[in-house]
Design goal:
alpha+beta
């Protein structure tokens, strides 16, 4: 049976607190390496801190380079909850209220207001969501393709 695909990032451990490890990931936009990045303002480099819970936090040290990963299916689920489902809710409400009242203003206002309870529900279930959308950690070892000057004699 094929293992589920994983999304993996390399980061540096910034803080260890009990069984929680804070890891810094440098996120680089696709255009950050473009030769014309000075012309446009779309390039950005951003540091993100990811918190990983692990039972073996004592095996890691601050400033150690590690790999963090999660299942690709979780990324799609996060995309669905954060973008697609709210869009579908707004569109369904907009069409329904438009058919019922015939007023575009009322339909637009009510459809936007449906986002308030949606995001409140997400906010109050964030602890459950943190368990679902959790990262895993493993020690980072040099990749063979990036190793140079290897002497096997």
């Amino acid at each position: 049976m094929q293992e589920p695909e994983q999304i993996e990032h390399q980061g540096i451990i910034k803080k260890i607190d009990g069984n929680e490890i804070d890891i810094s990931i440098v996120s680089i936009a696709a255009c950050a390496s473009c030769s014309a990045k000075g012309v446009c303002s779309a390039s950005d480099v951003e540091e993100k801190i990811v918190q990983v819970k692990t039972e073996n936090a004592a095996d890691y040290d601050v400033n150690e380079t590690v790999d963090i990963y999660y299942k690709q299916s979780l990324g799609f689920r996060a995309l669905f909850l954060g973008y697609l489902l709210p869009f579908l809710i707004v569109m369904a409400t907009l069409i329904t209220i438009m058919v019922i009242t015939g007023s575009e203003g009322t339909a637009g206002l009510v459809s936007l207001l449906t986002l308030v309870p949606y995001y409140l529900v997400l906010h109050f279930t964030k602890d459950k969501l943190k368990e679902t959308f959790s990262f895993s950690i493993k020690k980072s070892y040099p990749k063979l393709s990036t190793m140079t000057n290897i002497n096997f004699s």
